[in-house]
Amino acid sequence: MRPKYLYKRHFVEILLLLNQSPKSFNELIKTLEAYPDTLNRRLKELQSLNLITLVEIDGKMKYTLTDKGRKLIPLIEEALRIIERIEKLIGE
Question: Which residues lie across from 55 on neighbouring strands?
């Protein structure tokens, strides 16, 4: 079974970046080096899943994690650790 969302381009990266701090669309574009259409599509998906939200901070619109999104972060980090261990084992 292949996860529905985790393999989508920039899905996990956006969540991990927003866990560090809220980011604007332009900040995400620069950091991810993403195509605007791809990033826009992914942000809309994350919003529709109630994992991120758009808020105004100091007069600028920024994306931030919702409570649901914050709860997902430890699970993503654990999954990434497991994937790293699997890849290390395969590489031996």
Answer: 62
pTM of the model: 0.90
Q: Which of 31, 47, 41 is nearest to 9 (CA)?
A: 41
Q: What angle do CA 27, 8, 23 make, to 5 degrees?
A: 15
Residue 1 has pLDDT above 60, yes or no: no
C-alpha 46/C-alpha 39 separation (Å) is 10
Query: In this predicted model, what pLDDT tens digit does every residue of 18-65 receive, in sequence order?
Result: 999 999 999 999 999 999 999 999 999 999 999 999 999 999 999 999
Q: Shortest CA distance to 14 belongs to which of 81, 61, 76?
A: 76
Beta strands 52-57 and 60-65 are antiparallel
Q: How far is CA 61 from CA 6, 47, 57, 64, in A?
A: 26, 14, 6, 10
